[in-house]
Amino acid sequence: MSVGMALDEIFPGGTFPANCPSRVVLDHVTSKWGVLVLVALERRTLRWGELRRAVEGISEKMLAQTLKTFEADGLVVREALPVIPPHVEYSLTPLGAELVTLLRPLLLWTLENAETMLGRPLNRP
Amino acid sequence: MSVGMALDEIFPGGTFPANCPSRVVLDHVTSKWGVLVLVALERRTLRWGELRRAVEGISEKMLAQTLKTFEADGLVVREALPVIPPHVEYSLTPLGAELVTLLRPLLLWTLENAETMLGRPLNRP
DNA sequence: CAGAATCCTATACGATACTG
DNA sequence: CAGTATCGTATAGGATTCTG
Fold first, then answer.
1. Is the C or the N end of chain A the one with fewer CB within 10 Å?
2. How far is it, in rounded angstroms, from Cα B6 to Cα B23?
3. In chain B, what residues touch A20 (CB-CB under 8 Å)?
């Protein structure tokens, strides 16, 4: 199965089955904060606080939940340094890095087209 | 702004601002049924009923809501033939087709990796 | 600093019934 | 056939407080 493959080679008739496990993974990735958290980690390892500031508006609860899901999925690794005060770093696994390769263009596309699509100006830093 | 561009060239400091309009677009695309509906339309125009069957498990309410959002966003066009019984076709706009170019690889990636990530077998047709 | 635990609410979503 | 309207619920998500 290659990435260039047509979808109906995989799903004959072009039907996406309801009980396909990939739905779960898709739900994780497309969860409210999923894309932003993963892409935020693309450039480098980030600490909890950095990540929280990088993804503006995310609550602590959602950051924790999103990270745990991705950790369980094998997309993100958590490394806690045994120091006081605590120092915890999050980074992408190779699998996560591979996924972000697909997510960054998507994020960039929304940036390029949001203004046109919504008919109002972009808020740029 | 090109697709290959690094994100911190756009968001210096690697911070994703909370009030950026692209968040809205991202929410539409990553809505529960967004990716599946858009990718289902990649190959050809589909009628309401075909679309409903293609995306297994979607309710009529959510199909309607998802399609309306995408229509307003300029990603999908609705064409109603003035016949009885009604015959309505949905297809991608050029903008929508461009977006699906980015979404199909994402969907394929989840298909390839879901089994490994979740530790259980894929349900294939 | 990096969370966990609680509580609370909006709304996303589904099921059902109805219609031109 | 292609929807809309209504209702009900689950749960995603936020705000706040607490802690090692």
1. N
2. 18
3. 111, 114, 122-124
